[in-house]
Amino acid sequence: MHVIVVGCGRVGSELANILSRRGHNVVIIDTDPDAFKRLGATFNGITLRGFGYDEELLLEAGIEKCDAFAAVTNSDSANMMAAEIASKIYHIDRVVVRLYLPEQERSMQLLGLDFVCDTSLSVAAIFEKLTTSFSHTLTVRGDTEVIEFIAGPLLHDKTILDIQIPNKFRICLVTRVGSSFIPWRESILKENDIILAVVKTTSYGKIRPFMRVS
After folding, report:
1. What b/e readout covers 127-161, taking b as 16+ CB neighbours within 10 angstroms?
2. CATH 3.40.50.720 residue ranges in the chain?
């Protein structure tokens, strides 16, 4: 994948290095040229100095061929502007925003942007969202996320009871062909159902196989 990372702080530099080691083409942007020292001598991606919401710079970074975009600076407003350009103008499907202030969650939801809240921030969580993007996070509360995803083939003809993980994963709403219902333990799921669920961050990996690959 061609990935653009905006912000070369602790999170951005670690994320860029992980992506690069996994064989992805990485471009990382920061306003401070000294920030790139965090990447170390083994980083084989591209570094660009400037603002992540500068469209000329983003074009230089290859946003027109970009597969995934992470905005992880220490500024919520800068992250939101950069992510909105990536999502709304260049139609990048996998866009993840680092969010410091919980009160900004509503703005993220209105913009349709996926995010990782700083109170539960981990590079692994951002990497997971960038490289899979099977689900969309609607809100984060501590170590719990409300997510929306499309059911994959493993969920076809399964009941809620078959897949629910007590205290860790619960399906709250199912939408099928435009009609929604609140499921109970014997409700049968179908492939391509739109699922609204609550999941503990530590259990996300266990339910990922249930999600349709984008």
Report:
1. bbbbbbbbbbbbbbeeeebebebbbbeebeebebe
2. 2-133
Give the CATH fold of the 2-133 domain.
Answer: Rossmann fold (3.40.50)
Q: So what's the architecture of 147-210 in CATH? A: 2-Layer Sandwich (3.30)
Q: Are 30 and 145 in contact (CB under 8 A)?
A: no
- Distant-in-sequence contacts of 30-34, Cβ < 8 A, 24+ apart: 30/6, 30/73, 32/8
Instruction: Give, in degrees to the nearest 5, the angle at Cα 81 between 75 and 86.
Output: 125
- Biggest alpha carbon–alpha carbon distance for the chain: 57
Q: Where are the alpha helices (DSSP H) in the chain?
A: 10-21, 55-60, 76-84, 105-111, 123-131, 160-163, 204-207
**From-to residues of CATH 3.30.70.1450 in the chain:** 147-210
Quick one: DSSP state of residue 45? S
- Rounded CA-CA distance 214/204 in Å is 17
Tens-place pLDDT, residues 103-153: 566 665 666 666 676 545 567 667 766 666 566 766 667 678 888 888 999
* Whole-structure pTM value: 0.64
